Amino acid sequence: MVRTLFGVWLERRSSKLEQRSIMASTKNLSVYFKLPSIRKKLWVRAVNDISLSMYKGEVLGLVGESGSGKSTYGRALLRLNEAQSGQIFFQDEEITHLSTKEMRPLRKEMQMVFQDPNSSLNPRMKLMDIIREPLYVNKLGTKQAQEQAVRTILEHVQLPQDSLGKFPHQLSGGQRQRIAIARALVTRPRFLVADEPVSALDVSVQAQIINLLSDLREELGLTILMISHDLSVVQYFADRVAVMYLGKLVEVGTVEEVFNVPAHPYTKALLDAVPEPDPTIIKATRPIDGDMPSPVHPPSGCVFRTRCPLAKEDCERIVPELKEMTPGHLVACILNEQGGN
Description:
The chain is of the alpha/beta class. The chain is 30% helix and 22% strand. The protein has a domain of 78 residues. The protein contains 11 helices and 12 strands.
C-alpha cells in the first residue's frame, strides 16, 4: 500500500530488521584531508579503514568523542565528503565513484539532518521555500504538488501550517530543528543521517525531537544513522551502536550488549563518564587519561593504546581487527583475543 509522492508515505514496514537486508554500508572506507604544508604533505586521517553496515529499518548509533571522525563518516556515506579509498554501497549498489549526475537520482533517497539548524537553514528564505527546495532541485512534481507535500510533512513534524510564511529566526531552536527534519524528509528518503540533531537544544526540547524522530522512523520506515556523543540519547533511541575512536571502529553491537557488557576499554571509559543522576549512588569511574592524539600522526598499533589503562607491549605493534565475540558483537582489542580483558 503505497501512497503518492506528495502526501503520502510508505506504510509501516513489517517488523524491525526482520530480513536483515542492508540499506547502506561501507567497506574499508578511509577519508583523509590534506593540510597546507610547505615542506611535506600532511594528512588528517579522519576516517580510517571502516567497514560497517546499516540494516533496513534500524537506528544505528555512532558514538565517540569530538574529533573521532563520526560526522566525517556520515558525510562520506552520503558522498558529501570524498573517500580516499574503500567502497560505499547504497541498497546493494556501489556509489563510491558515481558522478554528480549519476548521484542525482539517489539524493532524494538519502538525506541528512545537520547539527546546527542556525547554519543549515537559509535565513533569507521562508520556511515554505526551505522545505520545498529539495523537491524543486530534484524536479519532483508541480509547484502545487510540492507545496502540498510541504504541508503534509509539516504535519508529520508537528508544526502549525501558519509557520510556513515565517523566517528561521522567528522560530525557537526546537522548531528550527523540526524544519531541518522536515526538509530532509520531504523527498521521502529511505535513509537518514542525523548528525548530532539535539546537541544544541535544551534537555526538554531534546526529548521532544528524539521522540519525534522515533515516531517518524516508525511511520515512514526510515533507516537512521544517529551520530551523537550523548550516550543516553543513543541508548534510548538506537537498536545498535558503533563506537569510534580516532577514525577507527573499536566496538559494534546491539545497544543491550554494548551498554550492559562493554568489551573495549574505550567503550567502558565512555560509559564510566556518564553522570549518575542519583546523588546517593557513588559510581566507580576510571577516567581516560590525556587527550586524544592527533589524527595527523596517530599512534602505531592500537590507536587507543596511549590512553588505555590496560595497554600491553603488543598493543604498540599489533593493529587490532574487529572480531566477533558473540553473534553481532564485534570488538577491536587484542586483550579480548588473549582473554585478558
